Amino acid sequence: MTPQAAPHVPVLLGEVIAALSPGEGETHVDGTFGAGGYTKAILNTGARVVAFDRDPDAIRDGSILAGESGGRLILVPERFSRMDQALASHGIDAVDGVTLDIGVSSMQLDRPERGFSFQADGPLDMRMSKEGESAADFLNNADEAEIADVIYQYGEEPKSRRIARAIVAARPIERTGQLADIVRKALGHKAGMKKDPATRTFQAIRIYLNEELQELEGGLAAAELVLRPGGRLAVVTFHSLEDRVVKRFLRERSGAVPAASRHLPAAPDTGRLPSFEAVAKPVRAGEAETAANPRARSATLRVARRTAASPWSHARKGMAS
């Protein structure tokens, strides 16, 4: 499927482009290329884009757009947490903007063979890069306690132990439909329920396998390294776990850490100058967009501008390997 025909609708597109304010002669990073929605909008302003995606399908499908860009689009088959090394290898030492659209793409969800969704039955895969341990590998080999911890931590599922027990009892599990049915039965699913009870479990396993939160932490730190003073960072998240990571990073890097409680020791003075400044309040999709694109309902956009201060850390704690 080509980028022109892809079903993926970029969320908060107008707001993201307004925040980045790209222009002719600038260089921007799209850390989550997907179907190329943000990239195409940035290219339309005359800017150059270096787009990252660890999904080989996205890179393959984006080749047409790259060929039509007149050399202004560079596709990089890599995790966005490694954007600083990848940019350096292309002779780019600083960029004017970085945008990240976190989580799974509609392309991945809509292709049953990728195993991300229970809306249509498919192999239990969930690997963004198509490499490493699959969801089936994890569920069929991990012990019950580990499965329960993953579902609780990354899915915020209060009944994770009950689900893990049911999963272990039903092994081997190879299909998305099979896993969804196990979870529904364990939680007492009833027809007509507003939210499918399998949603949290699928989210948790996907986030765990793809190290999504660690990748996000590493990507934010890498963006700090590559953005030039005045460069803009725009991050779109879709659930509280992701948004918490972004909120904490920007609060820390902007120096807006909450005052210490009188019951706790004072926070140490690091002596570091803020490397980011917030430029807007968090933005959420309006009624018209959520009606046209239900995926936008849970989206949150956070935007910040890079200051001239030195990066806080070149170690990039928490980066996925």
Write the layout of secondary structure elements.
Layout: H1 13-20, E1 27-30, H2 37-43, E2 48-52, H3 56-61, H4 63-68, E3 73-76, H5 83-89, E4 95-101, H6 106-109, H7 135-141, H8 144-155, H9 160-170, H10 176-187, H11 199-209, H12 212-226, E5 227-237, H13 240-253, E6 276-278, E7 283-284, H14 287-292, E8 300-306
Parallel strand pairs: 1-2, 1-4, 2-3, 4-5
Antiparallel strand pairs: 5-8, 6-8, 7-8
Helix pairs in contact: 8-9, 8-11, 9-10, 12-13
Structure overview:
By secondary structure, the protein is of the alpha/beta class. The protein has 2 domains: 3-105 and 212-306, Rossmann fold (3-Layer(aba) Sandwich); 130-209, DNA polymerase, domain 1 (Orthogonal Bundle), CATH 1.10.150. The protein is 39% helix and 13% strand. The chain contains 14 helices and 8 strands. Helix 8 (144-155) packs across helix 9, helix 8 packs across helix 11 (199-209) and helix 12 (212-226) runs parallel beside helix 13. The longest helix has 15 residues, at 212-226. The chain is globular. Residues 1-6, 259-268 and 315-321 have low confidence and may be disordered.
Overall outline: globular
Q: Helix fraction?
A: 25-40%
How many discrete structural domains? Answer: 2
Number of helices: 14
Oligomerization: single chain
CATH superfamily of the largest domain: Vaccinia Virus protein VP39
Rg calc? 20 Å
Unreliable spans are: 1-6, 259-268, 315-321
Question: What is the end-to-end distance?
Answer: 30 Å
Number of strands: 8
